[in-house]
Structure formats: structure tokens, C-alpha cells
Write a structure and sequence with these properties.
Elements (H helix, E strand, L loop, with lengths): L9 H14 L3 H12 L7 H11 L16 H8 L2
Helix pairs in contact: 1-2
């Protein structure tokens, strides 16, 4: 990695810190992800993928409940995130 020094407004720092806390990541990682998104290069690590998926678990109705038995959820989620 390359160290870079930038100046941010107080409001930007506050918002970035809040976002970092919500995501459970460091301030620096938050900035890197924001830069990646701005450049159209969003990369999601496996842990982040699981966190995002966990937020929507149970939020949708399964039109075919027998298609994926409960014991297969972890395997199906793992495959979907690959």
C-alpha cells in the first residue's frame, strides 16, 4: 500500500467514522472502500459479503420453500457469494 495524506472536512470525517463504526471496519478501510466505489472498482471481501447477506436474511418470502431446505442454507449462501 501507498501512504497518502489528504485533507477532509470535519463533516466528512464524522460521516466516515460513523460509516466505519456501522460496518465494523477501520477508518482507513472505509476510505479505501469509498475510493474503490468512486472508481467503479468496489471489491467485497468474504466477511463483508456475509455481513450484507445477513442483513437481508428473512426479508423475502420464498416462492418455493421446498427448493432449499434449512440444512442447505449455509451451503447455498456460500455458493452465492463465490
Amino acid at each position: 500500500m501507498v501512504r497518502a495524506q489528504v485533507q477532509l472536512t470535519v463533516r466528512q470525517v464524522q460521516r466516515l467514522r460513523r460509516l466505519a463504526a456501522q460496518e465494523g471496519i477501520s477508518f482507513a478501510e472505509t476510505i479505501r472502500r469509498c475510493v474503490d466505489r468512486a472508481l467503479g472498482e468496489e471489491s467485497i471481501d468474504r466477511a463483508t459479503g456475509y455481513q450484507r447477506a445477513a442483513r437481508v436474511v428473512g426479508a423475502f418470502v420464498d416462492p418455493a420453500p421446498d427448493a432449499c431446505p434449512a440444512r442447505e442454507h449455509d451451503r447455498a449462501l456460500d455458493e452465492a457469494l463465490r
